[in-house]
Design brief:
Helix content is about 10%, strand content about 55%. With about 180 residues, the chain is mainly beta. The longest helix is centred in the first third of the chain and has 15 residues. The N terminus is likely disordered.
């Protein structure tokens, strides 16, 4: 009898009281370098269909990635996050990351992705500008701007290449790759 009561209570807890579940999907990598760099990082879609919130984020990340998504709800903010649990290759890719959360009847006022806010827009491509500078030390600096905001730099030195990725004009990460020097 206790087993039957436990099963019924478990069923009510899971099904009857509207606990939300997340289904996370990622698209295939768009790794044509021109396309992956020109596609705008954005919220592609956010809507509720049959009590399921669907949010699709278009995001530029590294190649070879396998992402895992999660979420929490804090007041009027839905905090979506994703992390790479697979390999990493240093090449640009553009992914569509889909979050489907059951038992959500409305779209939350604020939605953050890994603590960042992205615009909801149907504009697929960004307005890019590229600049090449020679620094005082002789290094070549390639800078890329998306809608007038710095997003990417490549500093080419004699022995290393330094890749810098920015978000909203602030340094997000930096990777140093040593060059093979033959004597």
């Amino acid at each position: 009898m206790r087993t039957k009561i436990f099963i019924v209570l478990m069923f009510l807890t899971i099904e009857g009281y509207g606990q939300s579940t997340l289904i996370f999907e990622q698209s295939r990598c768009i790794n044509n370098i021109e396309s992956s760099l020109e596609l705008k990082e954005r919220v592609i879609k956010k809507e509720v269909i049959s009590d399921t919130l669907i949010v699709i984020l278009g995001k530029r990340e590294v190649c070879c990635a396998t992402f895992q998504g999660s979420y929490i709800i804090a007041k009027d903010t839905l905090k979506l996050s994703y992390a790479n649990i697979g390999d990493e290759c240093f090449c640009p890719c553009f992914y569509e990351l889909t979050f489907k959360i059951s038992n959500m009847k409305t779209v939350p006022k604020n939605i953050l992705f890994n603590k960042n806010k992205y615009p909801l827009t149907s504009q697929k491509f960004s307005k890019y500008k590229t600049r090449v500078d020679t620094l005082k030390n002789g290094n070549i600096l390639h800078s890329k701007f998306e809608d007038e905001v710095l997003i990417y730099e490549l500093e080419n030195q004699d022995t290393v290449k330094i890749y810098r990725k920015y978000y909203n004009g602030r340094l997000k990460n930096e990777q140093i790759i040593r060059k093979n020097i033959r004597k």
